[in-house]
Hints:
This protein is mainly α. The chain has a domain at about 60-170. About 65% of the residues lie in helices and about 10% in strands. It has helices at about 1-40, 60-70, 70-75, 85-115, 130-170; strands at about 175-185, 190-200. It comes from Kordia antarctica.
Amino acid sequence: MGNRIILALCFLCFACQLSWSQDDTEKKDTEETTKEESVLKVENATVVDEKKVIDPLSPSKAAFYSAILPGLGQAYNKKYWKIPIVYAALGTGIYFYIDNNKKYNQYRSAYKRRLAGFTDDEFQGIVADNDALIDAQEFYQKNRDLSLLLTVVAYVLNIVDANVDAHLLQFNVSDDLSVHPYLDQNEIDFNRNLGVTLNFKF
């Protein structure tokens, strides 16, 4: 007798679980039919496609503009706040290149004059040894070349940034693609399983 009561209770719980699931699917079905009906009501109306038109040449244009004039590609992408950063990076590199090149030429001219036998260069009394003039030339030459390299890197990064930014502007996160957490109850041992569902509507 006790086994029958337990079996009846288990059957009743299982039936309630099934009916609860059916209510949920019926609710979803009614929501979907309501959506379909609302779509059918506006069938004769003019439908405007709100999806953004993608220009496949946009990244190439942005990169080309940045190659012609640094910062122009960023302006094309309407990221105006990046333009001062581009010019600050390029301006810093150019400034240090000019400064190091000027000092390199000063030490080189002084070294050449001393080799020619003159003693009236600007470093007379400050730098007594010719080897010190050679070391200073090498130091400023290395810094000049490094400044030039960093300026070229900043110029290339300006082009790459404009290109990548134009690609990302075309990146579309569609409402038809969604990821949701998923909770499932195992029908054998009634343990709950966690997961992720990927929904794609087309």
